[in-house]
Amino acid sequence: xxxxxxxxxxxxxxxxxxxxxxxxxxxxxxxxxxxxxxxxxxxxxxxxxxxxxxxxxxxxxxxxxxxxxxxxxxxxxxxxxxxxxxxxxxxxxxxxxxxxxxxxxxxxxxxxxxxxxxxxxxxxxxxxxxxxxxxxxxxxxxxxx
Length: 145
Description:
This protein has 4 helices and 7 strands. It is of the alpha+beta class and 145 residues long. The protein has one domain: Pnp Oxidase, Chain A (Roll). The radius of gyration is 14 Å and the shape is globular.
């Protein structure tokens, strides 16, 4: 098993530590927004190290919608490339942990439906899309059978 390497962003590393250290009972929201987050655990595509990223909790039934917005930055977040290289992830939603497999949503009808759900859960996603030239990727995490 590879070693866990915390994020170089201090607030991310601290949130993951609080969320996981509490067994999913603390650190459940994005900073001061009050909006819920999940922790996505995956393998780094370059290093093979275990990475953990808090992402907005956007659910579609038993699936999770992962939006690679990076605040509307010009480039995709690192975790996007990790999930493209190895789609097998673990998602912690409060006290529950699920084995999931991720795929990028390319079908326009499915993408539009999921984007609407994501923006309803976290309205800034639309602002992020408006300020970047790239199409923000949407991935769906589905339970492993």
